[in-house]
Amino acid sequence: MGTSIPVVKAILQANEAVASENRAAFDRVGLLAVNLMSAPGAGKTSLILAALAHLPPTLRVGVIEGDIASTLDAERIAAHGIPVVQINTGGVCHLDAPMIRSALSHLPLEDLDLLFIENVGNLICPAEFDLGAHLNIVIASVPEGHDKPYKYPGTFQKADGVVLNKADLLEFLDFDLEAFRHGLRILRPDVPLFIVSCRTGQGMEAWAEWLLEHYRRRRERHGP
Ligand code: MG
Question: Would the keyword Metal-binding turn up in this protein's UniProt record (predicted)?
C-alpha cells in the first residue's frame, strides 16, 4: 500500500524541476505565461479570443493548446494569425511541465509577450501539475452551477485569478452568485474574481487590463 505514495511524489518532483526551467525560459525573455484551467466547455478558448480583442494590438500573444485529442481549438486560434502549438495528450487528463517544455521549441519565445496555456478541460488533475506559468487561472461558467468552489476546492485554491464566464446567462439560470462568491472567499479571501461574458464582451476590459498589469510588472522585473 505504502509504495504508491513515493512514486507519485517522484513524478511531481520531476515535474516541479521542469516547471522551474520553463519559468526561467519565460523570464529570460520577459514573457508572461498564463495557465487556463476549467471544466470542458467553460470557455477557455473563447476567453483567449475575447481577451485578444481587448489587449493592445502591439502585445504579441502566443498560445499552447492542450487537448486529449483534435486540433479544433488550435485551428480557432490560428485563424486569428496567432502562433499556436497543439499538445494532444492522448488520453492524459492534464498538461504537465515536460509537455510544455517540448511545445516551447515550436514557439518564437523571444517574439512573444504573453503566452496563454489552455489546459485540458478538467477541474481536478491540472491543478496538481505546475507548468511554470506565472498565473494560474480557473474559469467557471454560469451553466455549471454555483457549487464549483465547494466541490473542487483544490483547483480553486491554486488560482491567482478566477473568471466566471457566460454571465449573460445569469438572468436565465438559477445560479446563486453570492453562494459562488462565498465558496470562493472561504478558500481564497483575496483572489480576484472577473465576471465576464465572452459572447457579449461584458467584463472583458477589466480582465484584459489585469493581465496587462501583470505583464508590465513582469517586464519591469525580467524584461530584456
Ligand atoms: Mg478549448
Answer: yes
Q: Which grid cell is 133?
A: 506559468
Q: What is the CATH number of the domain that holds 196?
A: 3.40.50.300
Measure 60 CA to ligand 1 centroid, in angstroms.
20
In angstroms, what is the span from residue 21 Cα to ligand 1's centroid?
A: 26
**What single DSSP character describes residue 176?**
-
Number of domains present in the structure of the chain:
1
Cα of 138 to ligand 1 centre, how many Å? 13
Q: What is the pLDDT of residues 55-72, one digit of tens each?
A: 999 999 999 999 999 999
- Phi/psi for 63 (5° steps) reads -140, 135
Asked if the structure places residue 1 within a domain, the reply is: no
Distances (CA, A) of 116 to 14, 64, 110, 167: 23, 6, 15, 22
Q: Cell numbers for 134, please give them.
A: 506565472
59 Cα to the center of ligand 1, angstroms: 22
pTM over cut 0.70: yes
